[in-house]
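Reopening this one. Same input as before:
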Amino acid sequence: MPAGRSQSFPWFHSSRQKPRRWPLALRFIKGSVHAAIVGPLIFYTLFTVLIVFLDDHLNISLGVPSNVTPSLSIVVGLLLVFRNSSSYERFWGGRQDVGHIVSSVRNLSRYFLLCGPNDSDEDRQDTEKVVKVLIGMLYAMRSSLREDWGVPHPDEDPDYNSLLPPGVQGHEKWGVALPLELSFFIEKYIRKGNKRGNFQAPQASMLTSQLNAIVDAYGHMETIMLTPIPVCYQIHMKQVLSLYCLFLPFSIVDDWKWVSVPIVALIAFTLYGIESIGQEIENPFGLDRNDIKMDSIIQDARQEVLVLLECWKQGKEDHFI
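Same output, byte for byte:
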């Protein structure tokens, strides 16, 4: 942590605070895809051992012309490039959506606190409630994308539960996502401000556009989660990788003999590792180390907005001007 920073600071949870103990090149467990490729790696290594053993002990050569391998290499390379680029595009698109949602929550919170209907105690309570609902939408979206349905019990997730409107039950068992339901509370508040004259028609329209941006970004994240890579592509990808790794020992056994074993193992490790990375990041909303750190981002946004809300409740909003 840089000097001068204590307790908390912007991006406290979502920024890296601890130096890495080991270089990434020496990491084989946490954050890696090695566990997913152990099976194929062992299989192709043993298969190559068998081919080299038979080639050494039989009177016939199992080697084949090596000029076929470059053609297969081009095909495998193109498939892997497309696979990983499309997966990273989904990852980056999901991260951008999270950023857009947080930005909209910031904008709406600021506007509600400074320009909302706050003439009476009841109005101020409504403003506080709607600002908390904005943060609650972040939690609701996170839970929905992880298929964690329903309103949490206060003992299970008090941080999340305390942000929801009193008595909200949720209608997810009827097919209505909780983030969409919470957006009704916010839209109702905007309409109230418009009727009371706090939000003029252009301002109310702008606020509704910000709310629509949240719902649109959430819909895009749903699309990423619910649209896997087409199965026909996955099948062909697996088949081409298998064909290449099975053919490779025959094409190098005459030249490399027992050295073929580590060569094939290294190539299988590389190719299947790249393919597994694509699988790992194509749905970035889970709890894996390689997923978007949604919990940390939400914690930072919550801290940010609640501090502003507390200052507003104490009449100290001028300190931010």
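So the earlier flakiness isn't reproducible anymore. For the record, The mean pLDDT is 87.
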